[in-house]
Amino acid sequence: MSPRDKTGKLLGIGAESQLEPSVRAFRTTLTLAQRLRYAMDERLREDGLTTQQAALITVVVAAGKPSLAEAAAALGSTHQNVAQIVAALVRKDLLQVEADPADKRRKLLSATNHSAAYWKQRDQGDFAAVADWFGDLTPAELKTFCELSDRVIARLADG
């Protein structure tokens, strides 16, 4: 039995699933997320990075100069967990932390020039790997996948 079939059997997912559809969807999504994270962690490992660290950098670049709390909220993580990730990324010269000029107690995050150069040389290969992981889906299926996932994410965000 292949690892994929074994996981499907153990979790009750796959085409033969007898689970209630929402439970099957949850378990399928969780399995997919874990496998995608593992696959990206493998790609980043040689550089001493993790998917979670890359996600934080993505948030920081997209947001400009978010506070630690804003970054934690965007990642759906705790302040303490994000603070640990920030500390590791500061040591690697991929992020910097500075006091907010308007409130010295508040810390703002920004990506370094080293970070920008690093991702510039990696992005093409990483984007190609991600495209390959989703390669069995058509563009229309990918669009539907994203639209459906966005709806679930929005519902969870609404509490």
Helix content: 55-70%
Give the overall form.
globular
Spatial gap, N to C terminus: 40 Å
The number of helical runs is 7
Report the radius of gyration as a whole number of Å: 18 Å
Taking the sheet with the most strands, its summary is: 2 strands, antiparallel
What fraction of the residues are assigned to beta strands by DSSP? 5-15%
Give the strand order of the largest sheet, numbering strands 1, 2, ... along the chain. 1-2
**Are there runs of 5+ residues with pLDDT below 50, and where?**
none
Strands, count: 2
The average pLDDT score comes to 93
Series of secondary-structure elements, N-terminal to C-terminal: HHHHHEEHH
Structural class assignment: mainly alpha
Tag the structure with descriptive keywords.
159 residues; 7 helices; two-stranded antiparallel sheet; 2 strands; 9% strand
3D architecture notes:
With 159 residues, the chain is mainly alpha-helical. It is built from seven helices and two strands, in the order αααααββαα. It has helices at 3-11, 21-45, 51-63, 68-75, 79-91, 113-133, 139-157; strands at 95-100, 103-111. The chain has a two-stranded antiparallel sheet with strand order 1-2. A hairpin with a 2-residue loop joins strand 1 and strand 2 (103-111). Helix 3 packs across helix 4 (68-75) and helix 4 (68-75) crosses helix 5. The longest helix has 25 residues, at 21-45. The protein is globular and about 55 Å long. The model has no long low-confidence stretch (mean pLDDT 93).
